[in-house]
Description:
Elements: E1 8-9, E2 19-21, H1 23-29, H2 45-48, H3 55-62, E3 67-69, H4 72-80, E4 87-89, H5 91-97, E5 102-107, H6 118-130, E6 135-139, H7 142-154, E7 159-164, H8 165-170, H9 172-180, E8 184-188, H10 194-202, H11 208-220, E9 225-229, H12 234-254, E10 260-264, H13 268-280, E11 288-294, H14 299-302, E12 304-308, E13 319-323, H15 345-353, E14 356-361, H16 363-377, H17 383-402, E15 407-412, H18 421-428
Parallel strand pairs: 5-15, 6-7, 6-9, 7-8, 10-11, 10-15, 11-14
Antiparallel strand pairs: 1-4, 2-3, 4-5, 12-13
Helix pairs in contact: 1-13, 4-6, 5-16, 6-7, 6-12, 7-9, 10-11, 12-13, 16-17
Amino acid sequence: MVEKRTHKIILPTQEMPKAWLNPTPILAKMKKEPPKPKNPEKADRVAEMEKYWAPSLLAIEKSDAAEIPIPTAVMNLLIWAGRPTPLQRAYRLEQALNTPAKIFYKREDIQYATTGKTNIAIPQAYYAAKDGFKRLVAGGGAQWGTAASIAARYQDLPLDVYMPRESLESKEPHRVVMNVNAATVHGSPSQDTEVGKQMAKEDPNGSIATAFSEAVEAASKNDGAAAIFGNFYNTPIVFQSIAGLEAAAQLKMAGVYPDVVIGSIEGFLGLALPFIADVADGRKTGTKFIVAGSKYVPSLTEGKIEFDYPDYAGLMPLYRFHTLGCKRTIPLIHAGELRYHGVSPILSTLVESGLVTPKMYGQTELYESGTIFCRNQGVIPSHEAQYAIKAAIDEALQAKSEGKEKVILFNLSGHTMLEHKGYLEYIIQKKLELP
Length: 435
């Protein structure tokens, strides 16, 4: 007989959110708004943003509106790319852990790009095309490049992707998808930009920060090009909020509310924002928020909270955030999207305020958790998603030790069908090069 338990909660397409949430006014309500970006002494980096940002995107970046309406054309594209995504109950994982906790995970992994980053790329490409730009330039990791290549195809725009050189070599399947989608992929630092030539002498493996610098230079020198970004700025958080809004509606359908909300540094805010808004508005208290990151890139636990550049070469404005230093050489962890010296100012402010708790993990314990999840739920998680899974398992085991039932929600931000190298090390070679 087929089980009557609800394993998967599907939000009807017609009930998808009609507007994104803006994090800025949410933090303002809590009197935790981060300071505005500023210029270095000898350059007007704030004004220079107009050279590489699409005006519509820059307007969203600076907006104080509580909600940003989702254009119908963008909604249709998001649906084509896999939205709304299911919310699933991890019954088998709960049973394996023998925990009273109820574990729910948002299936952002099932989208075409194998990641929820299409949530960010699709609207950015739409607005850039709407503003008359003829080319896109993306700076970031392999998942971001893959999502950007899909979004660029939807708008029939050529795309240049600058991604860390190490990721280019270790995540070849992502590059194949980008190339199939007609993107030109550059390993950063490259010899294709002036900043790339200089950075190659200092950090040949590259990082998200070097990719940012090259994307900014490339877009700034091409009047018809707009840069698009998968992290750090407010705008990506706005666009990612659709995941959390869907999850909130789906949990309501299930008749529960999360006691704990968890995501990786890259996947946290998009899922958590509606629940943080509940705290800001006084509708809920006591919700625990956990953001998970790498102990090898401990920006949230060891970084300084100060004004720094988001990019390696200092072509962007200065922002206040947890930073290890924009020229920090980042270890070669498998979660390439987390090879970044800092975090978004929004996330930094929430952690500084104490509302969000950071947890840092090594790679071996992550692969152990990812393997447990796969063997019970049938999904092999991306390297980035492992961080959220590890934190969720820890919370479930804590609930077991305390004998408390709690509702845990985490973001399964990607699967790993395009990212196999780390699992080969863990399963076949029996040892990770960086444990």
